[in-house]
Design a protein that fits this description.
By secondary structure, the protein is mainly alpha-helical. The protein is built from 21 helices and 2 strands. 52% of the residues are buried.
């Protein structure tokens, strides 16, 4: 079999979607057969992702790989066009990994299991499609289709305010998506040729004012998903009502769609506008880090506290994207993957804790670490990863963004000092609210009323296995970041060079560099 010409990405996208369509006809009374079927489908698809990556992906190639293109509407140059480069491949792998673990995390689901696992598998293919498609209109369609499973997973299996949270989610995200559609159509019909191909759109010569308008529209759409303050309020509500597997998908994958699209559409396709908007992204990133960290302090609901922590950590992504350095952009991509792993682990443990205590209020907990020692140990380890403890992936990612921005020659020294100081404040705030959270949940005197009414059973093997699977890459990347960075380095270096060329002062430095090197004295003279 010639695997080089096999449509790997199309298969990886369509296989879980096609498999989900068989769920209604599977004979099953109590949901056990369906959940095993869904887990096996997830494992097979993840194995296909790993095999395609191992056999068909070249680390040194910065361009699209595993490219597949099939005519859809030739008159408008619409195609089923998919491909993977350094920006999308890490997130495709992350999607397969997190979704498979989320399927295992959904083991206790008993309410409408057929529909639940159908939505999980449909979402699996849809999320991979978001990171793989290379046609702008097709990107809009898969972006929209992916919203439907999330809405239903929140509206049916959520908490007491699930309808409110689901409605708010769909209003925010669908409203933002309108900017994607308008932007895609405007770019496609700009100039003499009509095309929705992303590569072709990126080569068009847009007027600067037109780029700025497009950039602003796309920024609104992707700021909702990232999420960037003030378009973030749907996230705490969604997390506050979601179940553990949905938490994992929201924190582990959904937020990364916004960061990915911000790099792919805004930075890569509109580099001249990016040069103007970059300081705005820096300021928004700092606001995210500080405001969300301070807001997390005030939260007494455990899910909302972790949700605001997620918003704070995603601020580093926007700063890295706007740094104009290889290290900063590399740190932004690493932070997306790292936060996907850490966020999924923390929210899974929040769900496991709630299943035992039946409360999310920190005031009603206390001393449960004595009876749930395994959960206490896992929660502590994952919290250490979230607060960027050295040896964990979060430390490497945030350090790369720090150093990348601090060494950037695109900003004045005063601006960099202020931003770096505020980023440092955010890093200091993180361990304070996370450690105080651990103290309120696990330390101190036992809440006798809680212990008398709830049976506090320690973690079962399935839960330990899920956290172990997440901790392996978290620690592995922390000690050996090249494990991940080598996948996308060539792509981010190429993109950074293009972004720097869009800034007049940086482009001038680039032109003067060879002249300076010719006149520079050699060492020892």
């Amino acid at each position: 079999m010639n695997t080089a010409n096999f449509p790997w990405l199309t298969t990886i996208i369509l296989f879980p979607i096609a498999a989900s369509l068989l769920i209604p006809i599977i004979p099953d009374k109590d949901g056990k057969t369906v959940r095993w079927y869904s887990l096996i489908v997830g494992l097979i698809d993840f194995a296909l992702i790993v095999y395609a990556f191992y056999t068909g992906y070249d680390f040194s190639n910065p361009d699209l790989q595993l490219v597949e293109s099939y005519a859809w509407v030739p008159q408008l140059d619409l195609k089923w066009s998919v491909g993977a480069d350094g920006l999308s491949m890490p997130l495709i792998i992350l999607t397969g990994f997190i979704t498979t673990l989320a399927t295992l995390a959904a083991w206790p689901v008993t309410l409408k299991p057929r529909l639940f696992y159908f939505l999980i598998l449909a979402m699996y293919g849809g999320q991979i499609a978001v990171f793989a498609v290379q046609d702008m209109l097709l990107f809009f369609l898969v972006w929209e289709l992916e919203l439907i499973p999330v809405y239903l997973l929140l509206a049916i299996w959520g908490g007491k305010k699930r309808q409110y949270a689901a409605t708010k989610f769909i209003l925010y995200t669908a409203g933002g998506s309108l900017f994607i559609l308008v932007g895609a159509l405007t770019m496609a019909f700009y100039g003499d040729t009509v095309t929705f191909d992303m590569h072709s759109l990126g080569l068009k010569d847009y007027a600067l004012n037109f780029q700025l308008l497009l950039y602003a529209g796309f920024l609104i759409a992707y700021a909702v998903k990232l999420p960037i303050i003030p378009l973030h309020t749907w996230l705490p509500d969604a997390h506050g009502e979601a179940t553990a597997p949905v938490h994992m998908l929201l924190a582990g994958i959904l937020l990364k769609m916004g960061g990915y699209a911000l790099i792919r559409m805004n930075a890569q396709m509109l580099p001249d506008a990016h040069a103007y908007f970059a300081p705005v992204l820096i300021i928004l990133g700092v606001v995210n880090i500080i405001y969300a960290a301070l807001t997390s302090f005030a939260q007494r609901n455990l899910k909302r506290k972790i949700a605001y922590s997620s918003i704070s950590h995603m601020g580093f992504v926007t700063i890295g994207i706007a740094s104009f350095t290889d290290l900063g952009l590399s740190g932004a991509v690493l932070q997306m993957v790292s936060h996907g792993l850490i966020g999924a682990s923390l929210f899974f443990l929040v769900g496991a804790t709630y299943d035992r205590t039946h409360t999310l209020m920190l005031d009603e907990m206390g001393g449960v670490g004595k009876r749930m020692q395994k959960i206490f140990a896992m929660f502590t380890t994952c919290s250490m990863a979230s607060l960027a403890l050295p040896g964990m992936s979060g430390f490497v990612a945030e350090l790369m963004v720090f150093v990348g921005f601090a060494t950037s020659d695109a900003y004045s020294s005063t601006f960099k000092v202020i931003v770096v100081f505020l980023m440092a404040v955010g890093v200091i705030l993180t361990p304070i609210y996370l450690l105080s959270m651990l103290r309120e949940i696990f330390y101190g005197k036992e809440n006798e009323e809680l212990v008398s009414h709830q049976k506090l059973i320690d973690a079962e093997p399935r839960e330990v296995f899920i956290i172990a699977c997440l901790l392996v890459p978290i620690i592995g990347i922390g000690f050996y970041p090249k494990l991940l960075t080598q996948i996308y380095d060539s792509t981010t270096v190429q993109l950074t060079a293009r972004l720097r060329d869009s800034v007049p002062t940086l482009a001038q430095k680039k032109e003067e560099a060879p002249k300076l090197s010719l006149n520079a004295p050699t060492i020892g003279n």
